[in-house]
């Protein structure tokens, strides 16, 4: 039996891909081409192929619903969500890189600059933290009136939607930058946490010898008129999982070093009652009209 790839079959299938939508035709043709290459490379047995299909069936039927999408988790843990993010968010030097949104975003309560965004039991036990910085364009011009949507896990790695001890909206905020483009808020240090492991994605992680942990982080989504919306993470330095994030979302520019602050002067400046950690992070947005030197439109495919 020949081991050469069956290009005749591939050509036959590709010849059937037609329709009125040229983009769809491109996508389906590429998908078919890559899948045939996969089969010719891996040469799965029929039992292996059916096991793969059963894995996808179980993912959809048992682990997807109104409050959970296991396919997104699979996309995250295989680096595909980050790959899609990367090809769609190129920008100039100095921009804050984007990073995946993840599954835990929900509407946040508007708050004032300086507010505590932590009101659950974590406030009494976790490390008090001040987060501040500015929203700028890539040339360093401050952007007053930018809206920052924040969400984070608590010190046990749980979001409000996963934890009955937290009120809805806890550790979330909508903040608007001041006349200098500055923002600040008081919170607690978030913890690293595992992605859900009870479904098919967790089974696959275990089978390929990977841990499910995500390094400690804050999520931010920043909007300002005339600029691209920036969705990204702020990661805390020295987290043991920074080099092995289960979702492959870490980028060096997004890692921030929390600084320990104990002096009365620092406490007074940031309205804190004792020692705390300070996180400073500027967010640099890309103008809507920015294009790469090659002229490629990279924010949204036209
Ligand atoms: Fe998260």
TrEMBL record:
Positions of the UniProt region annotated as Disordered: 94-126
GO molecular function: dioxygenase activity
Cofactor: Fe(3+)
UniProt keyword terms in alphabetical order: Dioxygenase, Iron, Metal-binding, Oxidoreductase
Domain Intradiol ring-cleavage dioxygenases: 131-159
Domain of life: Bacteria
UniProt similarity note: Belongs to the intradiol ring-cleavage dioxygenase family.
Protein name, entry field: Dioxygenase
Source organism of this protein record: Actinomadura fibrosa
């Amino acid at each position: 039996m020949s081991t050469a790839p069956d290009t005749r079959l591939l050509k036959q299938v590709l010849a059937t891909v037609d329709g009125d939508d040229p983009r769809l035709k491109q996508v389906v043709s590429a998908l078919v081409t890559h899948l045939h290459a996969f089969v010719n490379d891996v040469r799965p047995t029929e039992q292996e192929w059916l096991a793969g299909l059963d894995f996808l069936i179980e993912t959809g039927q048992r682990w997807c619903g109104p409050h959970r999408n296991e396919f997104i988790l699979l996309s995250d843990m295989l680096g595909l969500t980050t790959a899609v993010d990367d090809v769609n968010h190129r920008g100039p030097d100095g921009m804050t890189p984007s990073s995946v949104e993840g599954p835990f975003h929900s509407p946040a309560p508007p708050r004032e600059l300086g507010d505590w965004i932590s009101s659950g039991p974590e406030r009494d036990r976790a490390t008090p933290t001040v987060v501040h910085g500015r929203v700028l364009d890539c040339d360093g011009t401050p952007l007053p009136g930018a809206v920052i949507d924040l969400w984070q896990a608590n010190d046990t790695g749980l979001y409000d939607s996963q934890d009955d001890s937290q009120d809805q909206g806890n550790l979330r905020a909508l903040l608007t930058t001041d006349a200098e483009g500055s923002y600040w808020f008081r919170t607690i240090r978030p913890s690293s946490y595992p992605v859900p492991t009870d479904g098919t994605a967790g089974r696959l992680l275990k089978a390929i010898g990977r841990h499910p942990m995500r390094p400690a982080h804050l999520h931010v989504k920043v909007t300002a008129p005339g600029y691209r919306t920036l969705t990204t993470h702020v990661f805390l330095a020295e987290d043991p999982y920074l080099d092995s994030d289960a979702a492959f979302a870490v980028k060096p520019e997004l890692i921030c070093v929390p600084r320990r602050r104990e002096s009365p002067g620092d406490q007074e400046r940031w309205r804190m009652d004792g020692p705390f950690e300070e996180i400073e992070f500027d967010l640099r947005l890309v103008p809507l009209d920015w294009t790469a030197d090659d002229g490629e439109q990279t924010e949204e495919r036209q």
